[in-house]
Amino acid sequence: MVEKALGARNILLKSDSNLVIGQIKGEYEVKEDRMQKYLRLTNHLSQEFDRVDFTQVPKNQNSEVDEVARQALSEEGTMFEIPRTIISNNGHQFDSQDFRNFCSGLGIKNQFSSLGHPQANRQTEVTNQTLLKINKVRLEEAKGTWPEELPNVLWAYRTTARTPIGETPFRLTYGTEAVILVEVGVTSMKREVFQENSNEDQLKVNLDYLDEVREEASQKMAKY
Fold this sequence. Notes:
Structural class: mainly alpha
Largest sheet: 2 strands, parallel
CATH superfamily of one domain: Ribonuclease H-like superfamily/Ribonuclease H
């Protein structure tokens, strides 16, 4: 969580949904399985802070959250959801029975990087440190405007080639490279070879080769 990474101990969470706030506070019963999973996740994350308050606000006063949701939908095509798998190192905080039960209750597969492959553990730590460093620099400067700045931080990381794998996280996810804004106004190979009428077919070809790209990235990381 961004708040935890920035060292926050007391947080105030706002929602324009009176039902959601009521469910979190125990005033309303949570019947749907999906909402029960979110409630368990909320309660678990709340334990990471000294104090967490929830309050309901009018929709016209919840513009910051609405903006984050809008950008998440426009850039990723879906809202962030509970992950299917969590891959972590072998720290005691991840290998405890409480954490296993927490993951199991949400339908999350809890997997660990191999002790015989320390490169994977180090790479995870490097990735986390990189994201935390970018977040602290950009979001501390943004202060009250952090909801507008956060998508930019994530986009910068996703579209920058990582040294150990030689690829961008964006390509490893979607099978093709993103055209960043700086490339729009300058001459580049991507722009020169782009053909709109065959672009759709080329994207399909890229997806066909995606497994090979990921395998090559994995081999590079192992040698790094």
